[in-house]
Amino acid sequence: MHEGNTHMLQVEGLNVFYGSFHAVRDVAFDVRPGEIFGLLGPNGAGKTSTLSAVEGLLNFQSGTITVAGYNIKNEPLKARANVGVQLQSTSFQAELSVTEIIRLYAGVHGVPVTKQSLQDVLAAINLVDSGNKKYGELSGGQQQRVSLYIATIHQPPLVLLDEPTTGLDPQSRRQLWERIEALREKGHGVLLTTHSMEEAEAVCDRIGIIDHGRVIIIDTPQALIEQYRNDPEVISVSRRGKVTLEDVFIALTGRAVRA
Ligand SMILES: Nc1ncnc2c1ncn2[C@@H]1O[C@H](COP(=O)(O)OP(=O)(O)OP(=O)(O)O)[C@@H](O)[C@H]1O
């Protein structure tokens, strides 16, 4: 991490075009140490494009992205060394065992593995008896625990999670939330995308709502609900007389389903 740096991530004036299509428009936000920042938006809003730009996988047309103090265009290797990305479960080879996957990624990042440290890792991710199981044979929740561990194996200051709990049952989701919160406690900055307003309310310190490529608002979930509680549009979409973050989200982004 760059000395004197106070942000895990700083995105300023980010623009992404696919041909002539303007997918991300002047996006700006930051993620601080010990903060979980949620990027929310309807389908096609530009969340994954923004995350891909931060990962260094997408050549954006204008803007500045700084990871742990390193500009990703000027110092791409240093910037990328400071990011951990949770890969989709399909990115791992289903035939490899949990232990083989841990050894493989530890090797990639130069993290030493001993018999004892391997046992400790398996215990930490609640897979003590599953070290020899093939990745493809794990449940969705178990796969997510492995992939979250792999994302943070090199203790990166910034952790990127693209819809980390999609498809998980309530128990597995809660367990993953606790693991994400543990990263916050250790001072990592976490940037996650989610379609779950419940998740955003439960774990995110701040959220940015993105729509049609633009960030339309950034605040804490509580402050957003407070700010829009008496807004007639929010009240009109609310159900059972209680205003939730989802009501605010739908009122701000419109009710129409995106193509
Ligand atoms: N490689 C590409 N080529 C052309 N258009 C693309 C490409 N990738 C994304 N887009 C378009 O850019 C827009 C933003 O897509 P993006 O995947 O970033 O949205 P998202 O917010 O992550 O959506 P979702 O919630 O559905 O995952 C969409 O209109 C999408 O169709």
UniProtKB/TrEMBL annotation:
Under Pfam families, the record lists: ABC_tran (PF00005)
Could you identify this protein by its name?
A: ABC transporter ATP-binding protein
Alphabetical list of SUPFAM superfamilies matching this protein: P-loop containing nucleoside triphosphate hydrolases
Record-linked PROSITE patterns = ABC_TRANSPORTER_2
Residue stretches making up the ABC transporter domain: 9-237
**Family as reported in the entry's similarity comment:** Belongs to the ABC transporter superfamily.
- What SMART domains does the entry give? AAA
Keyword Nucleotide-binding among UniProt keywords: yes
Tell me if Transport is a UniProt keyword of this record. yes
**GO MF term list:** ATP binding; ATP hydrolysis activity
Which UniProt keywords are present, listed alphabetically? ATP-binding, Nodulation, Nucleotide-binding, Transport
